[in-house]
Amino acid sequence: MFRRFGLLLILGVLACPLLGQDTLINRLRIRSDSLLRTWQQAVAIANLADSLERERATIGRDTIAVGALRIITNASPLPVRQAAALAWPAIDSLYGSAAADLAERPYFIRAVDPDSNARRAVLHVGLEVPWDLDLRSTTTLLLTTVPIAPPDRALATWLTGVLRPSIHPREDVGGVYLEFVTAPSQAARGCFMGDIASCIDALGLGDTNHQLERWYPSAPERRAVVTGSFADFFDHGGSAPALRECVAGRDASCTALLRSLPADVLPKPLSDAARVSLVRDALRLGGQDAYRRLLRDPEAAIADRLAEAAGVSVDSLVAGWRNAALAARPAPVELPWWAIGVALGWVTVFAGCGLSSSRWRL
Amino acid sequence: MVMYKALLYTQWKWARLIILLGTLAGFSLPLLSLQGAARADRGALQAQDLLRAVQSWGTLYPLLAAALGLLVAIATWTADHRGRHVHALTLPLPRWRYVLLRFAAGMTLLAVPIAAVSVGALLAAFTATIPSGLQAYPLALSLRFALAVLVAYAVFFAISAGTARTAGIILGVIAALVVVQVVASIANLQLDLVGTSQVVLLQGLGPLAVFTGRWMLVDV
Amino acid sequence: MGNRVRRVRTLELAMAPLRVWIAVAVGGCALIALAYLPPRGAAPRGPRFATYSPEPTAARRRAQAVAKEWRETDASLRLLEDRQHVKWDSSRVGPAIIFRGPTLPPTAVRTVEAVADSMWRALGLGETKVRAALVIALERAPGSAPGPIPDQNGVAFLTPDSTDRTTCMAFLPANHFWTAVLLGHPPRHFEPDWLARWFQSGLGPCAYYAAYGTPSRSVRSWLAARNWDVALYLGTHGIAGERFLSVNLLGDPRYSWYWDGIYSLSPSTVACLAGRLDGCRSAVLYGADDDARIAVPEIVRLEQGWWRKQHLLPGERFLGDVARDVGRDRFQSFWTSSLPVDTALAAALRQPVGEWTKQWERRFIQPIRLGAAAPLGATLLALLLAAVAVSAVALAASRRQVR
After folding, report:
1. Chain C: nearest CA to A259, how far in angstroms?
2. CB contact A133 to C (< 8 Å)
C-alpha cells in the first residue's frame, strides 16, 4: 500500500513540471486566441479609421480634376491646377487607357506653411507640401508620385521600382547612349555596335543562366566590376586575400568573388534607367492599351510581355530603342551664344580692374 | 623689453580690430555650440542630437584659428613691406631678433582670442546640463585651439614675411602639383599627388592634422 | 620732474584707446554671455526635405501593436508546443529540424539535415547533454493562415528550464530567399556554405547550451539582462560570414553617418570603441549587477536591427572569442561559476575584463578619437612646423639687404 502510494507520489512529482508546461501552453493558447480576436477587431477599426481619415482629408478641400487626375487639396498658393495640366499629358501618354483608373486614386495634397517651426496637424493621408513650391517642382512632384497601382512583383523586380513618367525624356535617352559607350561590359558594347542579341542580354531579357559570363565575358571586365563596385565590400575578413589576388590580375579570384554575390546584386551592364526607357518605348509603340497588356500576364517572361505591350517583336522593339538612344547622343561640346557674351564681359571687368590699379599711377 | 613693447604697440594698432572680432567670435563659439545642453524642461537635446550639434559647430574652431593666424600675420608684415623693410633694418638689434620679436608680439595679441575661447568653453561647460555618460573637454579644446592658432600664425607669418618672389614660388609649387595631378589623371597614371599631400599634411600625424578631425567640446 | 610727468602723460595717452578696446571686448563678451548663458535650449533639426510621409492613424498603430504582441505570443506557444513534440533522430548528431509551413520534399529534408549535421560538427559539437532543435518557419502566402503576417525577422530562442532541462529551441523564420533555397530552388550563384552559416547564426544561445551546458545563475542572469547580446554566435566567423560583423555596419569614418551610428550607442560602448578600459569593462559587465529575474519559460527574442542596440561591438561573438582564447576548461568554469560575473570572467581570462576586452576590440576597429585633443604626434609635428617656419624667416631676414 505504502509502496503504491510512494510510486504515485514519485510519478506526481515527475509529472508536475509537465503539468505546469501544459498549463502554460493552455494559458498561451487562450492568450493567443484572445489576441487574434482583438487584432481582427483592431484591424476592422483601423480600416474604418483610415477610411474616415481619407474622408476627412477631403472635407473642406477642393478637388482639382485635370484629365483623369484627381487632386484633393486645401486652398493655398500652391500651383496645383497648372502643374496638373502640365503633368497630365505625360501621364496619359505613358499609361494610356490605364491612366483612367487614376480617377479612382486621387492625390491628397496638404499645402502647409513652409516655416518648419509652424505647428501642423499629424499627416495621415497623402503628401504634405510647402505652399511656396514653384510650378516646375509641383509638376515634378505630381509626376514622381503618380498614384498608379504598383506593377506585379516580376516586373517591379526587373525594373527595380515603379514605372513613372519621364521628367527629362531627352536626357534620359542620352544617358542610355552614355551607358552604351562607357559600361565596362562587352554586352553593352555589343549592343552599341548593333548586335541586338547583346542588347537583349545586357537588358536581362534573354537567357539568365551564366549571367556573369554573358555580361562580363573577359577577365578585365570582371576585375573592373570587382574593383569598381565591390572593393570596399570585399576588403574585409576572408574575402580580402581574394580581392588582392583579383586586383593583381588573377581572374579566378575575381570570378569567385563575383559568384559569391547574390545574382541580383551583380551590377547590370545597362542600368535601371535603360530598362525604364525601353518600357517607355514599348508603351509608346503599343498605343492606348499598351500598359494594360504589359500587366496582363505576370507569369510570362518580361521579353514576351514587352513584345505584347509594344505589339512588335522584342527584337524590333530593342532595335528601335537602340536607334533612339544612338540618335540622342549628347552634344560633345556645347557653346551657347550667351556664354561668349559672359566670357567677354568678364574679360572687360578684369581688364578694367587691371587698368585702374594704383600701380599704373605714377 | 622696450623694443618688444614698442613692436607690440604698433602691431596692436594694426591688428586690434581683428583681435577684437576674433575674441568675440572665440568667446561665443563654445556658448553657441552648447545651446542644446539646457535643462530638460528647457528644450534640451538628446545626447545624440547634442553631440551632432557640437560636432557641427566644431568645424568653426579650426576656421577661426586659421583666419586669425592669416590676418594677424598679414597685418604684422604689411607696414614693413610698404616701407621696403628700411625701418626694420635700421633698428639697433639683430635682424633675427627683430623677426622673433615680431612673432612674439603677434602671438601675444593672439593670446587674447585664445583666452576668450578658453573662458567661453569653461563657462559653457560649467553652466550646461550635460547628459550622463558625456563629459566636457574645455581644456583640451582650448589647448588645441591655441596650437592651431600658433601653427597657422607661424606658417602665414613665414609666407607673409617673404617677398613677392617667395609667394610666387609657393603658388607655383602648388600650381605645378595641381597641373601634374591633372595631367596624370588624363594619362591614366596611378598618381594621386593631391590625395597623398592631403594624407601627409592633414591626416594622421601630419603637421596640419591639428586642424582636421573633430573639435568636440562635449563628447563621451 | 617735467620729463617724468611728460612720460606718464604719454603713457596715459597711449593707454586711453587701449582701454576703450578692452572695454568693448569685455562688454561684447559679457553681452554674449548674458544672451547665451546658461544655455537656453535648442530645437532639434527638422527633416531636410519639404514633403513629409503620412503617419499611420492611432487605430492602425494599435492594430500593429496587437499584431506584434500576437506574433510574440504565437511564437512562444509554437516553441513550447514544438518542444513537447520534438522527435530526436538517433542516427543524427546535429540539431533536430522542425519545419513549419509548406511541406518539403524528403530529399530536401535530408539535404537540410546533412548540412545541419556538418555545421554541428564544425562547431566542435557531437552528442551533447543539452540538445538543440531548429524550428524553421517557411514563408507562407498572405492570407493562407489566420492572423497577422508572420515577422520574417523574428528570431527567438527557448532556453532549457525546469520543465525541460535538456532541450533548447531556436525559432528561425525563413524569408522569401531562404524558403526558395529550402524548397530546392536556390538562386543562381548560391554557395553551399551559406545554408550552414545561416543555421549556425540561427542557433544563437542554443549553441552555448549545447557546448557548455546550463550556465550558472549569475551568468544566466547577466545574459538575460542584456538579452544574450554577447552570446549570439559561437562560430569562428561573423554572424553571417566574416564580412558581416556588426561593427562593420558603422561604415566609413569619413562620413558623418559613421558618427551618427557611433553616438546612437550607449556611452560605455562608445568609450570601449575608443579603447578606454573602464568603458570596455562597463560595456561587458552591463547587466551583471542586476539580479534579473529569469522568466519561465525564458524566451530570448532578437528584434530587427538588434545590432544597433548592442552594449558591445561586435558583441555577438564576444563569448565565442573568449571561449576560443581561454580554452574549453576555463570557459566552462566561468560558465558554471557561482561567483559574480566580473570575478568569474576575470579569472577565466586571467586578466582584468576591461584590459582583455580592450585588446579584443582592437582586432575589429582602430580606437576612435573622442573629445577635442589632437594626437600627440600631430601636436609635436605641428610645433616643429611652426618652429621651422619662424626660424626660416629669421634666417632669411638676417641675409636681407636694402636695395
Report:
1. 5
2. yes
Q: What does residue B179 show for φ and ψ, rounded to 5 degrees?
A: -65, -45
| Lowest-confidence segment of A148-157, C47-56, C220-229, C327-336 by average pLDDT | C47-56
Three-state SS at B71: helix
Alpha carbon distance A35, A136 (integer Å): 50
Percent helix, strand and coil across chain B, each rounded to 5? 75, 0, 25
Alpha carbon C356 to its chain's center: 18
Written as one letter, the residue type at C183 is: L
The domain ranges of chain C are: 64-213, 215-292+306-371
Q: How far apart are CA C157 and CA C162, in angstroms?
A: 16
Chains A and C touch, using 3 or more CB pairs below 8 Å = yes
Whole-angstrom Cα distance, residue B187 to residue B205? Answer: 31
Q: State the pLDDT at residue A124.
A: 73
In 3D space, the residue among C99, C74, C226, C82 whose CA is nearest the CA of residue C151 turns out to be C74
Nearest CA in chain C to B16: C21
User: Which has the closest alpha carbon to C330: C345, C352, C340?
Assistant: C345
Long-range contacts of A29-33 (CB under 8 A, 24+ apart): A29/C77, A31/C73, A32/C70, A32/C73, A32/C74, A32/C77
Specify the residue for cell string 560602448: C269
Ordered structural domains, chain B, with CATH: 2-163+215-219 (1.20.190)
β-strand partners of B136: B218
**Residues sharing a CB contact under 8 Å with residue C50, sequence separation 6 or more, in sequence order:** A114, A129, A130, A133
CB contact under 8 A, C163 and A46: no
Q: What is the mean pLDDT of residues C338-357?
A: 93
Residues 189-208 of A with CB under 8 A from C: 208
Distance between CA C280 and CA C272 in Å, rounded? 4
Taking 3-state DSSP, the helix, strand and coil percentages for chain A, each rounded to the nearest 5, stand at 65, 5, 30
Q: Is the pLDDT of residue B122 over 70?
A: yes
Cβ-proximal residues to A35 (8 Å cutoff; 6+ apart), any chain: C66, C69, C70, C73
pLDDT, residue B143, reads 94
Residues 6+ apart with CB under 8 A from C366: none
Strand partners, C133: C96, C169
Cβ-based contacts of C308 with chain B (< 8 Å): none
pLDDT at site A54: 77
The mean pLDDT value of chain A amounts to 84
- For residues B33 and B217, the answer to whether their CB atoms sit within 8 Å is yes
Helix axis angle, C376-398 to B138-161, nearest 10°: 30
Give the pLDDT confidence of A286-331 residue by residue, as tens digits.
988 999 999 988 888 899 999 999 999 999 999 999 999 999 888 7
Nearest to C54 among A29, A125, A237 (CB): A125
Give CA–CA dist A74/A110, Å, rounded.
6
Domain regions of chain A by residue span: 62-149, 168-327
Mean pLDDT of chain B: 88
Chain C residues close to A208, C-beta within 8 Å: 188
* Of C37, C267, C386, Cβ closest to residue B220: C267
Inform me whether the pLDDT recorded for C48 exceeds 50.
no
Chains B and C are in contact, defined as 3 or more C-beta pairs closer than 8 angstroms: yes
* Closest chain C CA to residue A240: C243
The answer to whether B119 and B23 have CB atoms below 8 angstroms apart is no
Residue B158 to residue C392, Cβ atoms within 8 A? yes
Contact C28 B24 (CB under 8 A): yes
Q: In terms of DSSP H, where are the helices of A168-250? A: 169-182, 186-192, 196-202, 211-215, 219-229, 231-234, 239-247
Residue A153 pLDDT: 84
